[in-house]
Design a protein that fits this description.
Number of strands: 16
Structural class: mainly beta
Radius of gyration: 31 Å
Helix content: under 10%
Distance between the termini: 67 Å
Strand order of the largest sheet: 4-3-2-1-10
Largest sheet: 5 strands, antiparallel
Length: 189
């Protein structure tokens, strides 16, 4: 058996106790639009019908269970468990009635698990190629790559003129043999 309450015009909340779980469904509907949010919380079996209170922050659901009282905050379509007992002395209790079942909760078929995505294939556009292992891109005679350096590219670096290095702290050009930046003194790796 489920319970339903109208929190505000067009905003209903459905509560249902299924064993140790409490299902909470918040439904908001306006002309041409409907929004639903559902959550299941382990609360234990109810020992009394739920109570709902209107608060300045939205609504608070009070559940009396075999484990004690539990409180759930509903703000629009957001549903969250309160870790401490809220002050409800100045809050207005909202009427609640029994319903056959919460909408869409028991009638939905179970969904088959999703299959993992296939690995991305290298892309090629004209003379530009991109690959993932190792991540890289080639366009004409320009090659960019991330990850480990292959023996072929390491060999080609040795035969090419020395590349310029820059300080990753201040950006000043450095010599390959420098251990510290000559400008800011930053220790180089």
């Amino acid at each position: 058996m489920a319970y339903v309450s109208e929190l505000s015009p067009g905003h209903n909340i459905y509560l249902e106790n299924q064993g140790d779980l409490t299902s909470i469904t918040s439904m908001m509907s306006n002309p041409g639009q409907q929004q639903q949010s559902s959550n299941s919380v382990k609360t234990g079996c109810w020992t009394a019908p739920p109570e709902i209170y209107r608060t300045p922050q939205g609504a608070v659901v009070k559940l009396t269970t075999a484990e004690g009282e539990q409180f759930i905050q509903v703000q629009g379509s957001t549903i969250s468990i309160l870790t401490s007992t809220p002050s409800l002395h100045s809050s207005l209790q909202i009427p609640i009635s029994q319903s056959d079942a919460a909408p869409f909760t028991s009638s939905l078929p179970s969904q088959a698990p999703l299959q993992p995505m296939q690995p991305m294939q290298p892309m090629k556009m004209g003379d530009m190629e991109m690959g993932m292992k190792p991540m890289g891109m080639c366009m004409g005679n320009m090659h960019l790559s991330m990850g480990s350096v292959s023996s072929e590219s390491a060999h080609s670096e040795k035969t090419q003129p020395t590349k310029r290095h820059f300080c990753n702290q201040c950006g000043v050009a450095l010599e390959p043999e420098d251990r510290f930046c000559s400008s800011c003194g930053h220790k180089l790796a």
